[in-house]
Every structure is written in structure tokens, then in C-alpha cells.
Amino acid sequence: MPDQPRPVATSPDQYTLTIEDAAVRYQHAGHPRTIRTIQRYCAKGHLDCLRQETAFGDKYLITPESVARHIAQIAELASTTSPGLSRPAAAHVAAPSLVEPERPAAAASPDLSRQDAAEGRYVARLESEVEFLRGEISTKNLQIKELTERSRETNVLIGGLQRLLAPLLGSPDPHPPTAGEHAGSSAAQA
Questions:
Q1: What is the pTM of this model?
Q2: Which positions ≥6 away from 81 have C-beta within 8 Å?
Q3: Is the predicted pLDDT of residue 166 greater than 90, yes or no?
Q4: Residue 83, CA distances (Å) to 73, 79, 123 in order
Q5: Mean pLDDT of 123-127
Q6: In this structure, how many other beta carbons lie within 10 angstroms of the beta carbon of residue 73?
């Protein structure tokens, strides 16, 4: 078995870029990439990175050298496939590229990052809480309506009691009957 070249040893101190930092470097180089695309580059091994699992998914730390190397590969690929340029002669064979081909801008939709599973659970939990609270508000509104009706009935009963007790206590009627009530009670006595 022939000797394979070994990858250069990289210390953990060299993994200094976050996915967002790498996205800024791609943007400045004129080759903007989405966060999800850079995550795929890391997962496929196009970038030298360390993967750390967090509660919200994987977090990647990337070496600046691998981002620079990958940007150079993209630039080289773009220069050889630009429209209007003739194809290079077949005299030299290009090294296999680890770069994903760029998609045409008109047909491509933006690469949206997926929701983390934990984020989806939080959204579902919040939605169930909202439904519960809406049910509670409906119940409370019904209770308030019933209590308001009971309060009105209580006021009517207390007013009638005051009218009955006023002559016994020797005080004038605090709520004299209106003309309609007086005529109704006269007819009832006859």
C-alpha cells in the first residue's frame, strides 16, 4: 500500500471562526453563502472544522485557512466556468474540486436554515399555552357575565327589602314606586 500524505495537524486554537464569521468572509470575497450552505460545507468536509453538539443543534468552529482555501477554489472554478471565456485546453487536468457548483440565481430560492428540533418543541409548547389561555379567558368572561347578573339581582332584592322595612322602621320609603309600579300594585289589590 503506497504511503498516503497525512493531513496537517491542526491545534484546537486554530478553530476560531464561527459559521457567521465564515459567511462574512465569503461575502467579502464576492461569493456570498448562506449559513446552511456553510454548515453543509463543514459536514461534507470542505472546511476544516470542529463540531460541538449543543442543545440547539451542532455548532461548528472553522479554521480561517480552510475558508481562504475554499474561497480560492470557488474563485478558480468561477474563472474557468465564466460565460464568454473559452474552455482551457485539455493539456492539464484540473484537480478534483470539493466545491459545490453554484446554482443559477434566477432558479434558486434562498437556502433557509431548518428549525432546530428544540425550537420546534418550544413553538408547539407556546401554541398550546396560547390555546389554554384563550380557553381560560372565555371561561373568565362567562363567569364575569354571570357575576354581573347576580349583582344586579342582589341590588333589586335589597331595594325591595328596603321598601318593606322602611314603614316598620318609621322612615320614608327610600325607593318610592314609579307611576307604572303604583298602578300595577293598585290593580293587584282590587
A1: 0.38
A2: none
A3: no
A4: 18, 9, 46
A5: 89
A6: 15
Question: Cβ contacts of residue 79 below 8 Å, gap of 6+?
Answer: 85
Range of the domain at 179: 121-189
Q: Please report which confidence band the pLDDT of residue 144 belongs to, taking 50, 70 and 90 as the band edges.
A: very high
**Calpha distance 53→61 (Å, rounded):** 11
Q: Is residue 133 part of a domain?
A: yes
Q: How far apart are CA 98 and CA 60, in angstroms?
A: 19
User: What is the signed CA dihedral for 156, 160, 166, 168, rounded to 10 degrees?
Assistant: -150
Looking at the structure, tell me whether residues 44 and 107 fall in a common domain.
yes
Residues 95, 96, 99, 103, CA torsion sign: positive
Q: Which long-range contacts (CB under 8 A, 24 or more apart) does 111-118 make?
A: 111/34, 111/36, 111/37, 112/34, 112/36, 113/34, 113/35, 113/36, 113/39, 114/36, 116/56, 116/57, 117/57, 118/55, 118/56, 118/57
169's grid cell: 322602621
Looking at the fold, whether 157 and 72 belong to one and the same domain comes out as no
